[in-house]
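Our preliminary data section would be incomplete without showing what the modeling component actually yields. Below, a chain of 314 amino acids is followed by its predicted structure, encoded as tokens that our downstream tools consume directly.
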Amino acid sequence: MSKDFRDVDSIPGERWFPKKSEFLEDMKDYWGDWGVASEVTKLKAVLMRRPGKEIEDFDYNEVRFRAPIDVDKFREEHDNLAQIYKRHDVAVHYVENQREDRPNAVFMRDLVFMTPEGAIVTRPAMEQRRGEERYVAEALAKLGVPIVRTITGDGIFEGANGMWVDRKTVILATGSRTNRSAYSQIEYDLRRMGVEDIIPMPIPYGHAHIDGLLNFASEDTVMIHAPQVPYDVCEALMKKGIKILEAPSQTEAKDTLGVNFVALEPGLVIQPEGNPRCREELEKNNIKVIPIDFSEILKGWGAIHCATVFLKRE
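Predicted structure:
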């Protein structure tokens, strides 16, 4: 060996190796206890918007309300719903900030679709609602809820056009409030998360969302507004052993939103008052019903399911 030879130390190899884990394994440690893959399992946490200045002065015709509202009663009904959640050990979180020209912001389900890995922040279809989602994203971030996607490009999607059947199955609708571009974005993420069966549901002209037409009261019971739900959707549910209950009153299904309830747990739902026939049908099929006055909020063509984002179900 030449006396001029110099032995240079090698550059060390990697000493900081990645943690081998799935996102769901890390969720509780790094983000919190969030996630939804059901419409009916035990409800543990929700996100809501208590109506603020946005409902104090607006043109009801411009934003698709049926009539002028009583502001105090509107807020009281919303507070009463929140109290029912709290009495059933549901943590209620709020979107604190919102545009003052968005009275429809109370209908939170349209702004988020929750998954096992976190939230999909939507992109509302109507100009009169566009921009509400920014403040929902702000609230989710403050809570530590992961945002797995924000609908982008030319996609439009409202969260009430997605509905969990079980961990492997989701109903996903298209119509005036959700287009194919957004459908494809959501389908990609759901399949990545292990969803195997996506049931497509075209929303009829004159309707907006799944939850006004179809809703789960328990893991094996669903109520539908029969003339407006495609047979293929019902057939897919029946093949899974799910009992189909038909709303017995078209008036209740369409005007007083008897199908737009929220399950606190399998077989226990909160339903808007003024739907006696739908309530009777549910109770005949072993579903317990907690009625609540939502008549003022119903003037905005939305009810209990519309007003609630599920953040955690067991």
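The mean pLDDT is 97. The helical segments are 23-30, 71-87, 132-143, 180-192, 231-239, 250-254, 276-284. Preliminary results of this kind motivate Aim 1 of the renewal.
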